[in-house]
Amino acid sequence: METETGGKDVFVHISAIERAGLTGLSDAQKVTFDVETGRDGRESATNLELA
Questions:
Q1: What is the C-alpha separation between 22 and 24, in angstroms, rounded?
Q2: What distances in angstroms separate CA 5 from CA 1, 8, 15, 38, one per listed residue?
Q3: Closest to 11 in 3D by CA, of 39, 50, 37, 49
Q4: Distance, CA of 44 to CA of 51 (rounded, Å)
Q5: DSSP calls for the chain
Q6: How far apart are CA 42 and CA 31, in angstroms?
Q7: Sign of torsion over alpha carbons 13, 14, 19, 21
Q8: 28-33 long-range contacts, CB within 8 A, separation 24+
Q9: What pLDDT digit, counting tens, does each position of 27-41 carry?
Q10: Exposed, middle or buried by CB within 10 Å (0-12, 13-18, 19+), for 37?
Q11: What is the pLDDT of residues 8-28, one digit of tens each?
């Protein structure tokens, strides 16, 4: 997922999308999210909500 601030892209796992009650994200879909660092050190988006 590309961030609006021009920062690095953020990975979004399908489970985070499903937890938000969504079936998927479309191009240019605007959402708010938190960034979580996993045990492997990779960052991913969590707590997605439609913006």
A1: 6
A2: 12, 9, 24, 22
A3: 37
A4: 18
A5: ---TTS----B--HHHHHHTT-S---TT--EEEEEEE-TTS-EEEEEEEE-
A6: 20
A7: positive
A8: 30/4, 31/1, 33/1
A9: 888 999 999 999 999
A10: exposed
A11: 888 999 999 999 999 999 988
pTM to 2 decimal places: 0.75
d(CA 14, CA 30): 16
Contacts made by residues 16-24, CB under 8 angstroms, sequence distance 24+: 16/44, 16/45, 16/46, 16/47, 16/48, 17/48, 19/48, 20/47, 20/48, 20/49, 20/50, 22/48, 22/50
Q: How far apart are CA 48 and CA 22, in angstroms?
A: 9
Residue 6 is which amino acid? G
